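Working notes for the structural subgroup meeting. M.R. asked for a predicted model of this chain before we commit to crystallization trials. I am recording the input and output together here so anyone reviewing the notebook later can reproduce the run.

Input as submitted:
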Amino acid sequence: MRVLIAGGGIGGLTAALALLKHGVDVDVYEQAAELKEVGAGVQLAANGTRVLYALGIGEELKTLSCETQGKEIRLWSTGQTWKLFDLAAESVKRYGYPYLMFHRGDLHRVLAQGVAVLKANAVRLKNGDLAASDAGHVVIGGAAPSGLPLSLQLAGRPFEEATVLRVGHAYEQATPWHTRRPRV
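Returned structure, recorded in token form:
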């Protein structure tokens, strides 16, 4: 099986890395001219860091992160604080994995490097609207920052014949674009 993934963001690269680790041939099509740092910080609880460790990138990200000690709330007018819960060692003790905070750009870079180690030419940049391959069986799409849907059109076959999985589809219920997309 060969999988074509629309979008080289965190979702697309995570899917690509997971599939490559399971022996599935993957090509990632990203409309941007380069993969670059975008966004701000990410907080990831143990259920998420468990996935990163399973993908083989957990330790590297841990070296780039800040391990959170705990969470508290603060009353704006007085500064009085209330501790909500402990994290750090408690997360590892209770769930087996840390609660981490890191920059989105670090996560994106480490995911891209992980994909490149398994398949050097997996990510194709600034490819335009048409994926020049009819060998793909699955298309995984997401949403662009503008909210418009991203997708791939398979060359030489009707779009409806491809199996489609969408990484991020929350916009579908809030915008009219979902009515023009194939139903999954």
